[in-house]
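2.7 Reproducibility. Because tokenized structures are sensitive to small changes in the input, we list the exact sequence used for Tetraacyldisaccharide 4'-kinase, including any N-terminal residues retained from the expression construct. No trimming or masking was applied before prediction.
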Amino acid sequence: MKMLRYILFPIVPVYYLVTWLRNKLYDLGIKKSKSYNFPVICVGNLSVGGTGKTPMIEYLISLLKNDHKLATLSRGYKRKTKGFQLANQTSSVETVGDEPFQFYNKFGKDILVAVDSDRQNGIKNLEKENSDVVLLDDAYQHRKVKAGLNILLTTYANPFYRDFVLPTGNLREPKKGVNRANIIVVTKCPENLLDDDKIQIVKRINPNEKQHVFFSSIKYSEEVISINKTVKLKELSSFTLVTGIANSKPLVDFLNEKNLKYQHLNFKDHHEFSKQEIESLKSKELIITTEKDFMRLKQYESLKEKLFYLPIEVVIDNHQKFDNIIKEFVSN
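Resulting structure tokens (single pass, no recycling of outputs):
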């Protein structure tokens, strides 16, 4: 795969020019963006792959759900439905996608969860539901909507400033796209990241005077959860780890630090499990997976008693400042 990316390097200037020109047309107002008279927050990234958008959306939900009629709006990647869908008790991964289904399972009593590849149409429908704050999931490049607040995520291990545009690198657009962000969060940092390291990263990001830079890390639970019970990690003798996410390394590192014994079945992001793969999983004694993959796998009756997920949450350095910026934005 790496060799193919190097071979495709001559295409990089073409991709760069096309994405740069598209953004320039929006910046100049030739292509139109729609603004809204209520708070719209976009969480996204410059790169393909996992930067931690889902736990960040969940952090924002927890922060705002008690004081607002909050809605999330996602594309609904790999769902089997079309157009606008509002999650309800009959929804599934097939109808709304895995991440929105996860939001609904966790917060469905407190918020609205919607999907629509046309974000303008999605927001219009959420206005009819009287939502007063909308969180846009993975919509940084969806410039037909002009969010009032843009939160850009970039990982500690693979920051945008060390990357190239597709197809040789992972960037969806040129690095200058960072200029649209109001908040930049360096995600998946080591818990003990030194202040000197943070200073050097901020220098490389080179934020303007209106941009805020924060650092976040992933906190894994000490327990795994199934449909009907909870078990402490330290009580597990051995298990099969099943992951279908963009980057499983942080999870694997965490489990290895715990000296846990397991077999790892690693699939691509948003993996759709085949009948053969489900049959193979039926033979496993205990399965630990991510919360997103749990949403896909829990529908199989044969796996319910052996299937658990490991919860995660995002921890933001200087979270009080971060929270205040968000709350101030939605209050104005």
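The domain at 2-68+132-219 is CATH 3.40.50 (Rossmann fold).
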